[in-house]
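Listing S7. Sequence submitted for prediction.
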Amino acid sequence: MAVMGDGIEKKFRAMLRHCPVKIVVIDAQGRLLEDWSGSQEWFGYRAGELEGKSLFEYLPAEQVEPLRAALNEVAARPGACSSFESRLRTRDGGWRWVAGTVTNLDGDEHIGGLLLHWQDITDRKQAQEVAASADALLGSIFEGAPVGMIMSGMDRVVRRANPKMHEILGYRAGELVGMTIHELISPEDFEQFNRAATPVREGRLPILRTEVRMLRKDGGTVWVDVGAFYLRDEAGRPSAAMGILLDVTERKQAIAELEEANRRIQKFAEYAVEARKSERLSIARSIHDELGQMLTGILLELKLLKSGHMQDCPCREELEERVKIISRHIGDGIRFVQRLSVELRPSALDHMQLIQAIRCQVQRFEENTGISCKLRLPVGEPEIARAQARELFRIFQELLTNIARHAHADTVWVRLRERKSKVILIVKDNGIGFQSDLEKTIRTLGLVGMQESAELCGGRLRFFTKPGKGTIATLRMPKIRPSELDELALS
């Protein structure tokens, strides 16, 4: 039995040595009486090195008296116990944290002292210190951030908001806590916010990004760019929401002012185009009605002169020749006036749509020049204002005229297409291209006027060319619908 008892004791001591909780016996003065589990090795000491020594010698000075008082209370009452956490100095001068419980078993004949259960909690304490440092850092970032930061529970009640968030919404420090997100977001934008938050809350998106209006304490509104995400528990369930908000009110106002300025520029451009149209029509009418009639009248007078007063004139033949020359010049002038009147007033768009007018213009161009044209046009009419269509058609006419005069081409490709916000006209030829500096050639051929006309409508006309490789003209014009022009005219 004695052998069996000795074996059990050894087995028990071995189990204690490998147990994370160590057991020692101390007296009322904190002296180590027995160490059954090898706890001295925790601190770098040899087995038995601390026996007979007071543990108070290895405690930080500030913890000696509180622990001595606790130990005295336990020692005064059999069966009493007390728990503590403290640092203990290691053999190399370092420190390790321990958590222990002291129980008064002085009346137990097998113990005969105070039983101390303790364990090394250094790793846990270090992790807590790291976590505390991280929390302090995050708290510092949260409080000092130059953007608004707000945290709410799943009930959407604000738990915490930083100073910048209070400043953005015009509240005093702490006033946002306890308010709901529903109270802070403009009713006009709340549904949009909910729709954006749903996939983030369900885990389908990592972060919410949207812009909403929020209500200030003084009743005003402020635009904010919101980035928000959910904090989740160990099971992955959302437990709280964190929002980072940037005040973009000034940016929104600047964008609105820029858009309004662009709208007014477009309105002025339309008025300028209409003014040019009216001016051209007036000039065309004056040329046709007045100068044309004057030339026709002169021609009739010459015919009368020729038929009635030259029979008996000694220099009749010379006069007849002069009259023929003058008549020919006047005929040329009449034809020039007629052509100029037509060019000043693109009558095709007065009684047909843009696409039909382009088809008719191309047909006449082919008949007059012998140059082949290949067309690619959309099925429906582009959604642009009438004045824009008129200017686009005029530029198209001038492009064809320049090709006929200068390009020496035998084929022209014409394409009209629509994008979401633009109408694009592309005219390409296989002629000789521009033979010198592009900008100089554009000025020489009078293409600057076309570019200026495009700019009046908010568009842009560009030329791409290589000697011997032909030329590509690309006109990009923003869409302005007639309804928008009416709105601009009333603004």
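Caption to Listing S7: primary sequence and predicted structure tokens for the chain studied. Residues 249-308 form the longest helix (60 residues). Confidence is low (pLDDT under 50) at residues 482-491.
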